[in-house]
Specification:
about 90 residues; alpha+beta; five-stranded antiparallel β-sheet; 4 helices; 5 strands; about 30% strand; globular
């Protein structure tokens, strides 16, 4: 039995979560967590009062190769965008 890509991601602690303040300072919120933990952390950060007040301006999830796999800015998801998500859903990379 082989694992799906989704199941493999759940077992890999390679994601990091950062947030950025209005001065551009970077704050590492989580390090070496699973994809699910990273997404939950980003969701939590984006709904906090600090995000609503503009203290948290940007939230980024990076993978083990330090590539950005998720980016939230000023109240909205900017990456992956709708087009990228549609391509991934169809298997077009």
């Amino acid at each position: 039995m082989t694992m799906t890509d989704h199941e493999q991601l759940e077992d890999v602690n390679e994601f990091n979560v950062f947030w950025f303040d209005p001065d551009g300072n970077t704050h590492k919120e989580r390090e070496f967590v699973t994809a699910m933990e990273a997404v939950e952390c980003a969701r939590s950060l984006s709904t906090r009062p600090a995000a609503k007040l503009g203290v948290i301006r940007r939230i980024m999830i990076t993978d083990g190769d330090d590539f950005c796999v998720f980016l939230w800015e000023d109240g909205r998801v900017v990456f992956p965008d709708d087009h990228t998500r549609e391509m991934e859903a169809r298997g077009d990379h």
